[in-house]
Write a structure and sequence with these properties.
There is one protein chain. Helices cover 15% and strands 30% of the residues. It has helices at residues 2-17, 182-195, and strands spanning 50-53, 57-58, 64-69, 75-81, 91-92, 99-104, 107-114, 125-129, 138-146, 149-155, 160-161.
């Protein structure tokens, strides 16, 4: 009888050993990007995934498109970060099908994760809205091909803030003189002054 009880106890505890997160990463994964798949470690090989963006520069409030390029995958955790920081930066826009927002760094839209284990692929495109910051940013992802096969800390290239314009005049499309760089305007003024 004792063996039967012990066997039942072992069978009931088995689901705890293989715990995974089919409906998305837990908030505890925000900083280290580590899935909480019990008994599984990240792949050490070069990831078959790349994070591509539609721009090399960003402007506060102007959306940036991010795509995870590579084989189909089932799970993900995607954040934007500043170099040297572990906190999520900016906000994600409407998540694509089979994904959802994840609250990270106190931001309810600070990251995107999977909503289920349906396949996602190169057609899954994410939209991120940068905050009003001045430093470079990059995207960081953990991508799970399946529960036991995942790559940690996949990084995009750095994106730099677009130069702030406004030192010149208003643009011609608004019915005013076109923008003129400050240096050109100053040189023109000096040349005109010496000729007069």
């Amino acid at each position: 009888m004792a063996a039967l009880w012990f066997g039942s106890l072992v069978l009931l505890s088995c689901p705890l050993w293989v715990r995974a997160y089919p409906s998305g990463a837990p908030t505890g994964a925000c900083e280290d990007m580590m899935p909480r798949h019990m008994g599984v470690t990240p792949q050490t090989s070069r990831p078959p995934y790349t994070l591509l963006t539609d721009a090399a520069v960003y402007s506060p409030g102007k959306p940036i498109t991010v795509t995870i390029v590579g084989p189909d995958y089932r799970g993900l955790l995607l954040e934007a970060r500043a170099p040297g920081r572990l906190s999520a930066l900016g906000t994600w826009q409407l998540p694509p099908p089979d994904t959802r927002f994840l609250e990270c760094s106190g931001n309810s839209r600070g990251a995107v994760t999977h909503a289920n284990i349906n396949l996602k692929g190169n057609s899954t495109v994410f939209s991120w809205r940068p905050p009003d910051t001045t430093g470079p940013v990059y995207f960081m992802a953990t991508v799970a091909e399946q529960r036991t096969v995942f790559w940690l800390n996949i990084r995009s290239g750095l994106l730099f803030r677009a130069p702030v314009s406004g030192l010149g005049l208003a643009s011609a499309t608004k019915g005013v003189a076109p923008e003129v760089p400050l240096l050109s305007a100053a040189l023109c003024w000096i040349v005109c002054k010496t000729l007069l």
